[in-house]
């Protein structure tokens, strides 16, 4: 059993290393010619810096930078990147800016750790205008004592009011933006475009990628160090909390003991974990780390750490087969019988 599990772990690890996520897309060249093929789907930061393109005729990968092409498009995801330049901190920077909204004001997104702005607007074919946002820690006086507090700038709010001054009724909505996010920025610009033009949609306004959510029903087999075993049945719920990285998920759920040596004393366990998916192709290997919370009569619950690897096999766009193997680690002062090897298989649905 141990050899089989080691082989399974090694197999998934090998997939993780060599998996590359290329998706159908097209590249727009400087002369407006279009190249059809596959484009590597990367993090928001990498998508803004480079385009890795693989054409249909061969497997050669070409790297394009913002000065090399006009832009590129992921077909299925309907994400469009435009090559452009912007003045930031007194120098010109080139990047691929993702189009979020098109209209009287266009909204663009470029994620970088180096600048104070992730969102940019363009009004009536002007140059891209950054919406700077930053926070600084300062001492403020509260209740007759000094406390360190993060003070956020209002430069982004001032810029939005300046370029949306022809629709002053939208100012209260602008002032509510404490922290710029995809949902708030898209809703704001779409609302402004509608109020200023009376047109709700123009050129198929581009929506941000919806947060992915999954529910999985499965059976898990646990083999403990004491040679006890347990069979669990249950469901898991996963959500992608960040639109900047669609490979990261938070997962929880509930499992009920169906049979085994512990079913008389342990009836329920609740997993809480983080998962990182290495590829969004048909085979999607992932890493998982978290805690199982065992529900007892006394004490009420005991948390036990686990770590492992798994894979999702895409059957259809919204249906996956989920297989994972984890090692549960009973750390002192927990009894050693908490150490276990677990295999889970189930059906995963996108909701």
Give the total of beta strands. 20
Oligomer: single chain
Order of helices and strands: HEEHEEEEEEEEEEHHHEEEEEEEE
Q: How does the major sheet shape up?
A: 10 strands, antiparallel
- Stretches where pLDDT is under 50 for at least 5 consecutive residues are 14-19, 203-208
Strand content: over 45%
CATH topology of the domain at 213-350: Porin
Identify the strand order in the major beta sheet.
Answer: 4-3-2-1-5-6-7-8-9-10
* The level-1 CATH class of the domain at 213-350: Mainly Beta
Which structural class should the secondary elements be placed in?
Answer: alpha+beta
- The rounded Rg comes to 25 Å
State the helicity in percent bands: 10-25%
Distance between the termini: 35 Å
Rounded mean pLDDT is 81
Number of helices: 5
Specify the CATH architecture of the domain at 213-350. Beta Barrel
Spatial shape: globular
Keywords: Signal
Protein name: Outer membrane protein beta-barrel domain-containing protein
Signal peptide: 1-19
Can you describe this structure?
- With 351 residues, the protein is an alpha+beta fold.
- It has a domain at 213-350: Beta Barrel (Porin), CATH 2.40.160.20.
- Helices cover 15% and strands 50% of the residues.
- It is built from five helices and 20 strands.
- A hairpin with a 3-residue loop joins strand 7 and strand 8 (105-109).
- This is Outer membrane protein beta-barrel domain-containing protein.
């Amino acid at each position: 059993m141990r050899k089989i599990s080691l082989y399974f772990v090694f197999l998934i690890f090998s997939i993780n290393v060599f998996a590359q996520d290329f998706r159908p897309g097209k590249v727009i060249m400087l002369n407006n010619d279009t190249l059809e093929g596959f484009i590597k789907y990367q993090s928001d930061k990498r998508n803004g810096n480079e385009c890795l393109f693989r054409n249909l005729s061969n497997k050669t990968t070409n790297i394009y930078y913002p000065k090399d092409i006009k832009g590129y498009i992921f077909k299925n995801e309907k994400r469009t990147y435009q090559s452009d330049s912007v003045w930031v901190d007194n120098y010109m920077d080139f990047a691929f800016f993702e189009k979020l909204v098109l209209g009287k004001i266009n909204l663009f997104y470029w994620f970088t750790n180096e600048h104070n702005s992730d969102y940019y607007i363009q009004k009536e074919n002007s140059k891209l205008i950054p919406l700077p946002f930053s926070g600084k820690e300062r001492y403020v006086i509260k209740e007759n004592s000094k406390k360190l507090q993060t003070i956020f700038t209002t430069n982004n709010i001032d810029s939005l009011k300046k370029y949306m001054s022809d629709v002053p009724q939208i100012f209260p909505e602008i002032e509510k933006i404490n922290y710029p996010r995809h949902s708030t920025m898209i809703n704001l610009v779409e609302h402004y475009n509608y109020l200023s033009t009376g047109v709700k949609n123009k050129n198929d306004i581009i929506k941000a990628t919806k947060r992915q959510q999954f529910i999985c029903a499965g059976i898990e087999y646990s083999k403990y160090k004491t040679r006890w075993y347990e069979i669990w049945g249950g469901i898991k719920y996963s959500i992608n909390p960040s639109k900047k990285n669609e490979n990261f998920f938070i997962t929880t759920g509930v499992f009920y003991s169906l049979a085994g040596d512990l079913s008389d004393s342990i009836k329920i366990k609740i997993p809480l974990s983080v998962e990182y998916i290495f590829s969004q192709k048909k085979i999607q290997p992932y890493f998982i780390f978290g805690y199982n919370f065992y529900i007892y009569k006394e004490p009420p619950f005991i948390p036990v750490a686990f770590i492992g690897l798994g894979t999702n096999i895409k059957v259809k766009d919204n249906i996956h087969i989920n297989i994972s193997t984890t090692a549960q680690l009973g750390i002192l002062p927990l009894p050693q019988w908490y150490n276990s090897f677990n295999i889970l298989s189930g059906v995963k649905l996108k909701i």
